[in-house]
Design brief:
The structure holds two protein chains of two kinds. By secondary structure, chain A is an alpha/beta fold. Chain A is built from ten helices and 13 strands. Mean pLDDT of chain A is about 75; it is low at about 1-15, about 45-55, about 245-255 and about 325-330. The chains are: A alpha/beta, B alpha/beta.
């Protein structure tokens, strides 16, 4: 294993990041996000996006159950009819409805800013679009970008007017080193947030592999929605981006047609010498497919949602298609 | 470099070296283009089964290696220069015609130039060059360096003899028959360089052998301006000449006599009238020894054509003169004198009278010093006595008699002693403790010890000794040394010292060895300074010179019996009268051939191939097939394919 200088393209990454932030949330995207919220309202007639029954029993509208009276209970909840019939005190319990907090965890590690367009751009757009929908449902939205650690960009807050504030803050996100899902989600769990929907927007390329991803996600106590940022070159690696070329420029003519190459991990700096033969490429694709299948299997077992967004496509359009098909439950 | 100069093993070794080098290159690390990627997670998984090549990892690209090896192998063969004319394992025999006709019009120079061209494409270890002059000689033996050829040709010129090409071919056929069936495995290629005629009948013996044969006669590029000028002989026609004069130790074994040979060539050599005199007295009993009588002890120089032989001529130092009279009775006044010390005098163009000074060989008187017999013991003494008595050159005398003769020039004497006796030539048998060398040769101080020792190994018969066995028996190493004889005047003094232990019967078995009488006899001869007999002198031959013997006169380098006034002239002048309107050299070569009894009618175009066994083209023309071109083209095409495959990622 050869350690290479991971900061090889640091200057190029900075310029790319600045360029990506400048066009992160343009007017067209914000209008598209607004339409997405309308679509979401249409397909969710029962109310809120995060419509969910609470485990708390309280003063709701729908009767749920009885329980014996104990000292200290609210006397207004005593069902006097039952008392007259049975001579014993029982409380009427009603289902209590509450809003569903949305926790957005976009991946802003160094790898998210490498290519052009960067995955971070697509990830942040997807997060903002989901936030727009959630804020429109009067749910609270919190944003916690992560890389090798997790930051609190926006604590859970609600209100339609928060969208532009949230967008403004998201444009100021800085790259955060490598991808470390375990550390980041451990920090997220330590925040002690009440149960909500945790949306992880990432490529999930943790150096620890699928096992590290599963371990990190399994520790999350919230409902999970995994938004996987993918691009075609993830499965067909040719041509990779030359280290000496300007970062963000992906030109088929500039890539190798074959032969011996050295691929360098932009985060860890690890390098591998590769002979680009058809057999090697086939094995690469097989490894990538195994990763995706493992991630999908985990999502099924965790009853989590899994969205695959093409970072080179229109993010809002892909989300609109999702919502038109109804709530995504894997 | 051409493949024809390399053995199959050499080519295979080169190919193996290439294969090994390519193998190492395949395993060397390569310089990679570097690419930044989002993750190397999947590359790791892919590489677990197919890692990039490193110096210590397994060999991953056998097909690519085979491809590269094919390209390199083709280039290697192209560099090696394969020759489509090559016959695997063929013995190449080049026959350089040195007959009289080759002296005209630069034919000989053209032939030697063609010979050098042919040699450049022939394997050294299977190439032989024969000089076909008066006699067939090996000019360059198989395995000899080509550089020797130039030096050997520098002193040679065409001889006044008919072509001996047919004789050379016939001799080769006879050699094949003698070698038996095993020799029939190797094919042969005969290349005739010259214009001498070769009859179909002369090739019949070679055709009778089962091995594949090929005969070629490259076309000679003649330069008429470069050749020696023709020069007509003065006087009347003379068809005979003395071409060699030889003296050899008497075949009868008489030490004080020699046999004298005279070789006469020409149109009527067999009928020539040859007379000889020694010191003015006519010798009778000339014996005509014919070609097939080599079993009678005829030297090789004379065996081919036969010679006149005088047996047991007293070796008293007199002048042996031979006169040659033509059939017409004319005896020219030209004279060529030569002696066995390599002096020669050739004042005329043809040789009809030659003389040689016979060596002086007298019986060597040998005596035992006082006390030697007692010191050595009866067994050793008797063995020495027997060995000396059996030698016809030795006469055992008493010590007193020997002392009385010492000092007389005509009485060579040798003393067998156990202690040095001044400058008297002596064979000393001394204890090993007193002499460092087992065999010490002490010589004239004016000579170099190294040269004396080198000659002494053969002259004293030391090369016949089984040194390893003697050293084992004695339990110590045996050394041979040479040193100047102390106290001896320049030009005199010889002594041979042996360890007495060598002769001790309880220590070694040397007395019973066959080499014992030989070593003793030769040591006595060497101590007595017996003059060596130069076997013969002949036209155009270098005359050997012995170390320590001064050459007689200034003409000892080359015997120029046949090169009077600097021009080689044909011994048969009438040949030169043939008009030159025919093909160059045809008539002349035919004329010489007739002088040797050849059939004139078969001497046609000298460039014509008279026989060819395999039917392959004789001369290489501009349109000859050149495999080198095709191999280079194929290698280039393969390299282009490899380049395309590399660019497409099909090859690492």
């Amino acid at each position: 294993m050869i350690e290479a200088n991971a900061a090889l393209a640091g200057g190029s990454q900075l310029s790319a990041r600045l360029s990506a932030r400048a066009d992160l949330f343009d007017t067209a995207f914000l209008e598209a996000a607004e339409r997405l919220r309308l679509v979401a309202q249409r397909v969710a007639p029962r109310g809120r996006f995060a419509d969910q029954r609470s485990r708390d029993r309280g003063a709701g509208l729908e009767f749920q159950d009885y329980r014996p009276y104990v000292a200290g209970d609210d006397l207004r909840a005593i069902d006097w009819t039952v008392y007259r019939r049975l001579g014993r005190l029982f409380l009427r319990l009603f289902e209590e409805h509450e809003d569903l907090p949305l926790y957005l965890l976009p991946d802003v590690s160094r790898s998210a800013w490498l290519e052009r367009p960067p995955r971070a751009r697509a990830g942040l757009r997807a997060a903002l679009a989901l936030a727009a929908v959630s804020l429109g449902q009067h749910d609270s939205v919190g944003v916690f970008p992560f890389g090798d650690d997790l930051e609190v960009l926006q604590r859970p807050t609600s209100g339609k007017g928060r969208l532009m504030q949230l967008a403004s803050r998201m444009t100021k996100i800085e790259p955060m080193g490598g991808t470390d899902l375990r550390t980041s989600l451990k920090r997220f769990r330590a925040l002690g947030l009440r149960e909500g929907l945790c949306v992880v927007v990432s490529d999930f390329f943790d150096p620890g592999g699928l096992a590290a991803v599963e371990e990190a996600l399994r520790a999350v106590r919230h409902k999970l929605l995994l938004v996987q940022l993918v691009r075609k070159s993830d499965r067909d690696p040719r041509p990779p981006q030359r280290a000496t070329a300007r970062v963000g420029q992906t030109s088929p003519a500039a890539g190798p047609r074959g032969g011996e190459v050295r691929v360098i991990d932009c985060e860890s700096g690890q390098a591998h010498d590769v002979a680009l033969t058809p057999a090697v490429l086939a094995r690469y694709r097989a490894a990538y497919d195994r990763f995706n299948e493992g991630l999908a299997a985990f999502a099924r077992s965790r009853r989590a949602g899994l969205l695959a967004l093409d970072v080179e496509g229109d993010i809002v359009a892909q989300l609109a298609t999702l919502f038109e098909n109804g709530r995504r439950v894997v | 470099m051409t493949l024809t100069q390399m053995t199959v093993g050499g080519v295979a070794f080169g190919l193996a070296t290439l294969a090994f080098g390519l193998y190492l290159m395949q395993r060397l690390r390569v310089r990679h283009d570097e690419y930044l990627v989002v993750t190397t997670l999947f590359w790791q998984s892919a590489l677990e089964e197919a890692r990039a090549r490193t110096l210590v990892e397994r060999f991953r690209h056998p097909l690519a290696y085979a491809f590269a090896l094919l390209c390199a192998g083709l280039l290697w063969f192209a560099v090696a220069g394969p020759d489509s004319r090559r016959m695997e394992g063929t013995q190449h025999v080049f026959l350089l015609d040195a007959s009289a006709g080759m002296a005209l019009d630069g034919r000989f120079e053209a032939a030697t130039e063609a010979l050098r061209r042919e040699l450049a494409a022939a394997p050294r270890d299977r190439t032989e060059v024969l000089w076909c002059g008066a006699d067939v000689e090996t000019l360059l033996a198989p395995g000899e360096d080509r550089a020797l050829l130039s030096a050997r040709l520098a002193t040679r010129a065409p001889e006044r003899v008919p072509s001996s090409l047919e004789r050379a071919l016939t001799g080769r056929a006879a050699t094949r028959r003698e070698l038996g069936p095993k020799s029939s495995i190797t094919p042969r290629r005969f290349v005739v360089l010259g214009d001498g005629p070769v009859r179909e009948a002369a090739l019949a013996p070679l055709r009778a052998t089962p091995q594949p044969l090929r005969f070629e006669r490259p076309e000679l590029r003649r330069d008429r301006k470069g050749g020696p000028e023709r020069e007509a002989l003065p006087g009347a026609a003379r068809g005979l000449a003395i071409t060699a004069l030889g003296v050899a130790p008497a075949a009868s074994g008489a030490f004080t006599a020699v046999d004298v040979y005279v070789s006469v060539r020409g149109g009527a050599a067999a009928a020539a009238d040859v007379t000889a005199t020694v010191g003015g007295a006519t010798l009778a009993g000339a014996e005509r020894v014919l070609e097939r009588d080599s079993a009678a002890g005829l030297p090789a120089e004379f065996a081919a054509h036969g010679a006149w032989l005088w047996r047991d001529v007293p070796a008293l130092g007199g002048t042996f003169e031979v006169r040659l009279a033509t059939p017409s009775g004319l005896v020219a006044d030209d004279r060529a004198s030569a002696d066995d010390r390599a002096s020669a005098d050739d004042r005329t163009s043809a040789n009809h009278r030659a003389s040689v000074r016979l060596p002086t060989r007298r019986t060597i008187r040998v005596a035992f010093d006082e006390g030697v017999l007692e010191t050595l013991g009866p067994e050793v003494s008797e063995a020495l006595r027997l060995a000396l008595s059996a030698d016809t050159a030795v006469e055992l005398v008493e010590l007193v008699e020997l002392v009385g003769l010492t000092g007389a020039a005509e009485a060579p004497a040798v003393l067998i002693a156990t202690e040095p006796r001044g400058a008297v030539p002596s064979l000393c048998l001394r204890p090993a403790d007193e002499v460092a060398e087992a065999i010490l040769v002490e010589h004239d101080p004016a000579l170099e010890s190294a040269a004396v020792l080198r000659d002494a190994l053969g002259e004293l018969g030391l090369d016949r000794l089984d040194g390893a066995r003697l050293a084992t028996e004695l339990g110590r190493a045996l050394t041979v040394g040479a040193a100047p004889l102390e106290g001896a005047a320049a030009g005199a003094g010889r002594r041979v010292t042996l360890w007495a232990e060598l002769l001790a019967p309880e220590r070694t078995a040397f007395l019973e060895d066959r080499a014992f009488p030989l070593v003793i006899g030769r040591a006595v001869r060497w101590l007595a300074a017996t003059p060596a007999v130069t076997p013969y002198v002949a036209t155009g031959r270098l005359v050997p010179r012995r170390v320590g013997e001064a050459a007689v006169g200034d003409v000892a380098e080359v015997v120029t019996l046949a090169s009077g006034r600097g021009s080689l002239l044909d011994p048969a002048p009438y040949i030169l009268a043939v008009p030159s309107d025919r093909a160059a050299g045809v008539g002349r070569a035919a004329g010489v051939g007739r002088a040797a009894g050849a059939d004139r009618s078969v001497a046609a175009d000298p460039a014509r191939v008279v026989a060819r066994a395999d039917g392959e083209p004789q001369r290489e023309g501009p349109g000859a097939w050149r495999p080198l071109t095709w191999i280079l083209l194929l290698a280039t095409a393969l390299l282009a394919v490899e380049w395309a495959l590399v660019n497409r990622g099909r090859m690492p």
